[in-house]
Give the backbone structure.
Amino acid sequence: MAQSQNSNDTAGKNDVMYAVKSFFTGMMSAQVAALCTNPIDVVKIRLQIQGEGGGGAAGLKPGGSRGLLNMFVHIARTEGILSLQKGIVPSLLRETSYSSIRLSLYEPIRDRIMTEDEKKHGAPLLKKFLAGATSGAIGSGLANPADLVKVRMQAATGHTYTSTWSAFKEIWQLEGLRGLYRGTVPTMKRAAILTATQLGTYDHVKQGILKSGLLHEGVPLHFCSGVIAGFAVAVTTSPVDTVRTRLMNQPLDAAGRGTLYRGMSDCALQTIRAEGFLGIYKGFTAQWMRVGPHTTISLVTWEFLRRLSGVSAI
């Protein structure tokens, strides 16, 4: 990053307005990406929970499963085309808090742990991963209630909510504050892995391309870096995303405890035992098709909005 910024940009990082602009540009770019990719997110959630508990996917015999396109068509036919935007409101609420926090915190955390020499020549990949993991965990921990509601509304199994607000109200009344933060640990782990991979890879690939002289600062560079980062994110987050989805969507007993899994490790082991190792990669294609475009759209939009608002490029 150091080679792509001027001294005025660096000095401005300590301004309050710089932080405010970074926060809002991150929020808006993530919301644009969420609107574009929510349908594939719904399909991904359904793919991840099919076969759970030994049952088949909706409309199939036990042990059966649907592929990406088949699930997409099935949802549209049986629930209506608008059902592919289920959970969009909590999704946007989640991006308002989660993505705005993780995106805006990445740069200051990275710069804080860099040495003076690294600020001139660029931070090593490990420090970029560390900065991304930290900002991602913080953002997801705060945004978990919206993420929980989004997953349950998109899954459409075991929970029937008439609206986003009714979902928040019902969870609060039946499960309490603890219920709203159900699945926080796997969610924070997933977010740490996702943000470390996404921003760390994007930052590193972008700077490598800039140094090679293949591309200059602009949309083509942002797009290419985003595509590579998106694939890396899909590979690293798919297993923990499947586990997180199943933990959040499992039915509860009278005491508010999950009836299927005792925790993250138990869920992963049960999934592997019942469905094989690839069971934790269930929905990978949908995951890639969701996080790939989401990563590319959000980062290209983020860079564009940062430039418009006078904030330096990542």
